[in-house]
């Protein structure tokens, strides 16, 4: 089993040969991270892992998608990123392209949209769709499913669960920013566990901001894990606190196991304060998030 290198990744003739698409000329390389190399041609995307452990993660992801997909239908028909795996000399995945823009804070372009520039009616529709997605995921009886164990470490955004978490130190780090962590402690914390996507950040959402049907696709199920379901909402903070709270508000309309909005803010502030306590220069990376809390006066379920 071989994996693409920096040199071979730019060899489109090699890629055509691997994909047996010698007659196809319009193969385009996509921007991708450190874990894989991606290309698209016509209506399909091909993704090559850069190491065997990443290939194992992709295998786990396919098993999870195939397992949860029926539970998300028909509401999300055509919007879930399904993949097929080709186990050859160079292993890769193939999937249909889901057309939309990412929403990860990058400037507006043909590939990206800023959440703040989406009109309020479509912001609400997005929150409703994401709430339904979480609701359907969290309703799945994970105890009856054979969910494979992670092949790599899975992100846990709730730093307050870390053994070394020092509440007093985190609270002290936030006080200069006029934020008292005591105020944000949830009065009725909900620790119910569920099968969670765990990475529904802006780079894993595809949006059609000009369409009333704004949600075009949900991708990357590689971080799916059983965890307290409130943690599933935290990655939305990477987009905007308003989206996280609006989504939770809509979610609470669908479930009897409600989550306080304060519980999300507490988790986010613990995350921020933990970083500040470790590194005062961390402020430059989270100053925008801190401003979201300037006008919080009350919480409505």
Describe the model:
It is a single chain. The chain is 32% helix and 13% strand. With 301 residues, it is of the alpha+beta class. The strands form three sheets. It has a five-stranded antiparallel sheet. Strands 6-9 form a two-stranded antiparallel sheet. The chain has a two-stranded antiparallel sheet with strand order 7-8. The protein is globular. It starts with 11 loop residues before the first helix and ends in a 10-residue tail after the last helix.
Keywords summarizing the entry:
301 residues, alpha+beta, 5-stranded antiparallel sheet, two-stranded antiparallel sheet, 7 helices
Instruction: Compute the number of strand runs.
Output: 9
Chain oligomer state: single chain
Report on the biggest sheet.
Answer: 5 strands, antiparallel
Report strand order across the widest sheet. 1-2-3-5-4
Mean pLDDT: 89
Tell me the structural class: alpha+beta
Q: Over all CA atoms, what is the radius of gyration?
A: 20 Å
Separation of the first and last Cα atoms: 53 Å
**Helix amount:** 25-40%
* Low-pLDDT regions: 292-301
- List the total number of helices: 7
């Amino acid at each position: 089993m071989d994996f693409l290198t920096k040199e071979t990744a730019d060899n489109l003739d090699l890629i055509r040969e691997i994909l047996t698409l010698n007659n196809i000329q319009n193969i385009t390389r996509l921007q991708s991270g450190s874990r894989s190399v991606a290309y698209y041609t016509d209506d399909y995307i091909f993704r090559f892992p850069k190491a065997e452990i990443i290939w194992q993660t992709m295998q786990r992801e396919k098993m999870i998608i195939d397992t949860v997909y029926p539970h998300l239908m028909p509401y999300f028909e055509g919007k879930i990123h399904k993949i097929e795996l080709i186990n050859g000399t160079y292993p890769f995945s193939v999937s249909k392209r889901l057309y939309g823009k990412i929403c990860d804070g990058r400037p507006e372009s043909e590939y990206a949209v800023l959440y703040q520039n989406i009109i309020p009616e479509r912001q609400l529709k997005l929150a409703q769709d994401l709430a339904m997605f979480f609701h359907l995921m969290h309703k799945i009886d994970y105890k009856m499913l054979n969910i494979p164990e992670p092949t790599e470490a899975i992100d846990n955004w709730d730093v307050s669960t870390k053994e070394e978490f020092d509440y007093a130190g985190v609270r002290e780090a936030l006080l200069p920013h006029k934020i008292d962590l005591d105020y944000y402690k949830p009065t009725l914390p909900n620790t119910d566990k569920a099968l969670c996507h765990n990475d529904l950040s802006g780079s894993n959402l595809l949006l059609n901001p000009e369409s009333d049907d704004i949600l075009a696709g949900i991708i990357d199920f590689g971080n799916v894990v059983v965890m307290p379901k409130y943690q599933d909402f935290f990655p939305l903070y990477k987009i905007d606190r308003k989206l996280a709270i609006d989504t939770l508000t809509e979610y609470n309309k669908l479930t009897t196991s409600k989550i306080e909005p304060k519980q999300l803010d507490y988790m986010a502030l613990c995350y921020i304060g933990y970083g500040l306590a470790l590194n005062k220069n961390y402020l430059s990376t989270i100053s925008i998030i801190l401003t979201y809390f300037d006008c919080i006066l009350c919480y409505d379920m």
